[in-house]
Design goal:
The structure holds 2 protein chains of 2 kinds.
Chain A lengths: L6 H6 L2 E6 L2 E6 L14 H23 L3 E12 L8 E10 L3 E9 L8 E11 L2
Chain B lengths: L17 H8 L3 H6 L2 E5 L3 E6 L6 E3 L4 E2 L1 H20 L5 E10 L9 E10 L3 E9 L8 E9 L6
Antiparallel strand pairs in B: 1-2, 2-6, 3-4, 5-8, 6-7, 7-8
Classes of the chains: A alpha+beta, B alpha+beta.
C-alpha cells in the first residue's frame, strides 16, 4: 500500500499496522479524541477508521490492476455489535466487488479479539477514470 | 444557565434540555474534538453544527470532509433527537446507521446535521436525518438508523 492516509486519519492517529495478504490493516490507539460515552470508543470514529481501511483496500486493489481512478462515496452502512473499550482498535477492508463503475467494499473493526468484531461496515464507491 | 427570556426559550420539558445537553455532549471526547455545537431543536428533532477544518478532511487534494466526522455528527444529532422526543436521557447504543451521500460538502462550509426521531418503542428508537451545508433543500447526505436502550426503556 502506497497511498498516504488523509488529514483526518493523521489527526486521530490512524496508522497502517500491517498488511494481511495485500490488504492494509489500520489501527488507532484509544484517546479522548475518539471517546464517545465515557470509557467507550465513539461509533463515528469506528466508522471513520473502517472507511479509511475500506478505501485503502480499494486503492491497493486498483494499484495491483494498474488503474488510476477517482473515488466518490455513494453510501455506507455500519452495524455496531459491541462497545469499543479503551484499547487499540484495528480495521481491515476487503474489496467484495470492483467493476468498472462501482466498487462494493466491506470492512470490519475489532480490538483484542480478531474473532469478535465490534463493528462492520459496507460501502459503495463510484469509480471514474482519473485523467 | 441563563434564564429563559420567553416561552420559546423554555426547554420542551424539564426532563431534557437539548441545548444544555448538547453543550455537555460536545464539550468532551470525540464530539468536543470535532467541534460539534448546538444549532437548533424541535419536539422530535435536533440540529448540531460541524465547522469545517483541515484536520477533518478525507481527501487532501479536494478538501472534502471524511465520512467519519459526518457519521459522528449524524450519530450525535439523531441520538439527541431521540432524547428530545423521549423527553429524558436514556442510555442507548447505536445499532446501525446508513448514510447516503448526495454530493460532497463544499470545503470550508459548516455542515448542519438535522436528526429526527420518527418512532420510539420501549427498546428501539428509529431515526432519520439529513446533513446540509447551508441549504436544507440541497442536502449533502441522508441518514437512517436505529438505537437500542441499554438500561431502562424509552417509553
Amino acid at each position: 500500500m502506497s497511498a498516504a492516509l488523509p488529514p483526518y486519519a493523521d489527526a486521530l492517529g490512524i496508522v497502517l499496522d500491517h498488511d494481511e495478504d495485500g490488504l492494509p490493516v489500520l489501527c488507532v490507539d484509544f484517546s479522548k479524541r475518539i471517546e464517545g460515552r465515557p470509557g467507550y470508543l465513539h461509533g463515528g470514529a469506528m466508522s471513520g477508521l473502517m472507511e479509511m481501511a475500506a478505501v485503502a483496500a480499494l486503492r491497493a486493489e486498483l494499484e495491483r490492476r494498474g488503474e488510476r481512478m477517482k473515488l466518490k462515496p455513494v453510501n455506507v452502512q455500519v452495524e455496531f455489535m459491541r462497545g469499543g473499550t479503551e484499547q487499540r482498535t484495528y480495521a481491515m477492508g476487503t474489496v467484495t466487488r470492483a467493476g468498472r463503475r462501482v466498487a462494493l467494499l466491506n470492512a470490519e473493526c475489532w480490538q483484542d479479539d480478531r474473532k469478535k468484531p465490534i463493528a462492520l461496515a459496507q460501502m459503495k464507491v463510484l469509480l471514474s477514470p482519473d485523467e | 444557565m441563563e434564564q429563559p427570556k420567553s416561552l420559546y426559550e423554555l426547554p420542551p420539558e424539564p426532563g431534557f434540555d437539548p441545548a444544555r445537553a448538547a453543550s455537555l455532549m460536545t464539550r468532551h471526547g470525540h464530539g468536543g474534538w470535532l467541534g460539534l455545537a448546538y444549532h437548533a431543536h424541535g419536539p422530535d428533532w435536533m440540529e448540531l453544527a460541524l465547522p469545517w477544518r483541515e484536520e477533518l478532511v478525507g481527501v487532501a487534494e479536494t478538501g472534502v470532509l471524511a465520512s467519519g466526522p459526518m457519521i459522528s455528527l449524524m450519530d450525535n444529532a439523531t441520538s439527541m433527537a431521540v432524547w428530545t422526543l423521549a423527553k429524558r436521557f436514556v442510555p442507548h447504543a447505536t445499532l446501525d446507521l446508513r448514510v447516503d451521500y448526495m454530493r460532497a460538502a463544499v470545503p470550508g462550509r459548516t455542515v448542519i446535521g438535522h436528526g429526527e426521531c420518527y418512532k420510539l418503542t420501549r427498546s428501539i428508537s428509529f431515526i432519520r436525518g439529513i446533513a446540509h451545508d447551508g441549504d436544507p433543500a440541497d442536502p449533502v447526505a441522508h441518514v437512517t438508523g436505529t438505537f437500542m436502550a441499554t438500561s431502562g426503556t424509552y417509553l
